[in-house]
Amino acid sequence: MPELPDVEGFRRVLAEHAGEPITAVRVCDAGVLRGVSARRLDEALRGHRFGQPRRHGKWLIAPADGPVLMLHFGMTGSLSWHDPDEPRHPHDRVVWGFRDGELRFRDMRKLQGVRLAADEDQAGRTLDDLGPDALDVSREELGALLAGRRGRLKSALTDQTLIAGLGNLLADEICWRARVSPLRNVPDLDDDEVTALYQAMRRVLRDSVRAGRVPPRDTWLTGARDEPEGACPRCGTTLSRRRISGRTTVWCRTCQPQ
After folding, report:
1. Confidence (pLDDT) at 213
2. Which residue among 5, 11, 53, 58 is the active-site one?
3. Which residues lie below 8 Å from residue 118, measured CB to CB, with a gap of 6+?
4. Distance between CA atoms of 29 and 91, rounded to whole angstroms?
């Protein structure tokens, strides 16, 4: 599932081709279009140039001389650059052509997709319900966001209206690094635990953004979470699993006591 680091990687891909004229817009599957037709998308973008794209949480925003392309990658989306002669993948849904290649939006499940805002104001309104981007949150802001919040920690961290950009992998990794159970009730967290969560979030995001994904390293929870009998990389305890708010949550009962 694409999370903040993945989308930052997609932003870099698009940024490499900012300023180049868009020569074609091909919608291979209109099932990923949200609130815009294939014809309108082509008319709005063909002959234009993308400016410098930006990211907010899991959203990629690309202004284009007036209209603003907005991409959300859902659970299986990606954006990649290809030689025009490279065969299309069956899940390539929208393709933007350039003089020397193509940007391809690929998505198997089509849970989110491609939007087009008329201008920056409309694009901003689309993001109004999101919390601050996780990379921009300070320690004080994290404390304020969690203050008064009810429910389990995992649900809070993955709530995009609270903090934008954290998904299943990041939230579990952050809790594991901070040695705080994702099952903890948010009002029960003390200041030291919030500080530990903030420091873990900064480290995990820094390393993940550099890698362009949440890396499945042997020293990370992500390196063991998909193994049927995965063990904690820190203490060797068999990892625990349960669903929280519909998400598979993984943690270590020894390192992260409830």
Report:
1. 93
2. 58
3. 66, 67, 68
4. 9
